[in-house]
Amino acid sequence: MAVDPDKAVLDTFATHGPDGPFVMLNLLRFTPDGRPSYEEYSRRAAVLLSRYGGELLYAGDGATPLVAGEGQTWDAVLLVRYPSREAFSSMVTDPEYQQITGLRTRALSEAVLQPTAPWASRPGSRPS
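Given the sequence above, the corresponding structure tokens read:
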């Protein structure tokens, strides 16, 4: 399973999609001894995240899902806000970031990085 986006995916992401801030959903499944490596990655990546205007909104352990297909349980969930697609792309291509990506890659057996876009407000309507 993939844990890192490839260059073609990053290039498409950077040039296609809405401008402005977005939140990245991170679903993470650790290798048997991967959590310490991911924690080290997180500590070091926090400096870069701040440098590029990003913000960790939430990080927590996954719990037993109430609704999910087989194999859709996750060890950790993170929500990270970025000011723009350009900021995200610049961060992940920064040479300093590239030096720490091995920590993340070794830590994970599977991952989902899902960019999200806010729903447009509609008077009198709420998502259910």
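The mean pLDDT is 89. Try to locate this feature in the token string yourself.
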